[in-house]
Give the backbone structure.
Amino acid sequence: MLIVDDDAGDRKLLRRLITQRGSPAEISEAASWEETRVNRDLEPDLIFLDYLLPDARGVDLISPFADRWPRAAICMMTGQGDEEIATLSIQRGAVDYLPKRNISAAALDRVIENGCKLARMRWQLEEHREDLSVFSEVLVHDLKAPIRSMRFLVEKLNEDLAEGTVNEVQRDVQLIGKSADRLNELVTSLASHVHLDRETVEEQITIAELVEETRLSLLAEVERTGAKVRLEGNATLTCHVPQVIQLLQNLIGNAIKYAGESPPEITLRCNQSNDAIHLEVADQGIGVPLEYRKTIFEPFKRLPVASAIPGTGLGLATCRKVAERHSGRIWCDEAATEGTIIHVRLPCRSPSQSRAD
């Protein structure tokens, strides 16, 4: 939680009431907008925002705060109750409004419980909106190419059938099959990307078990290329198992796909700290140019060198979504000089904590 208020007494009161709730909470404070801008480590779930700050009006900060922390709930506070301020705050995106004279344990419980739920729903709706935008882009652009290709090949097949050229007919059929495979791959990848937010049960599973499940799902690619997949270290993770398998499948599948001329060699390193599990997926393939390492997790972002390799441009975007759904993060190692190293950091949680979330 983040308390943004220039009154030290009000901040102290809020901190005391939040602490007395008995639920674990990390509380940060700022006396001005500038202090929140300087502190880049802030990642609040809930913001208590004073209406009047030394360097800004709180109501004018709702939008920049929402842009910076899209999952956070924002509660506006004022020294005196004001219906006009309350209305304006809600219109601009605050989830609740509290006159300071009405701040109490019960009021805080309402804001924390209902506000965080509402903020999460808003964030999910925005994610859906973005996913629908991606879906539209695919329908307009990516789906047209294989459809045009299949239409052309069907016309050519009819011509070759009429002429009785058996070899050409066989070639046409093979090309139509490849176009159909490409279309199926695109639709499947898009469906997985869009529907990752469906609620599923979280389970405890070891990283070794996840890697083995992933290896089995990629058995054809592993056998065809002679790929070697090695795991160093192990840990137990509470997660949506199919989603994390999909994450590993995309990462290992990419390492195989972009291995270059040599047989793929992929090393997964697993390290566990008190609060998180850190995975590294390292390969000796063609690598990712430095200028692309921050953008490859965006939908449809593919490397120029990958233009001749089949793919939808959604694999790594799906990996990022899986990591974020688990309150984790994923990034490409900027220091790697050979091959590619992808880092995945997922929080350690028990099944009971997952259900509470």
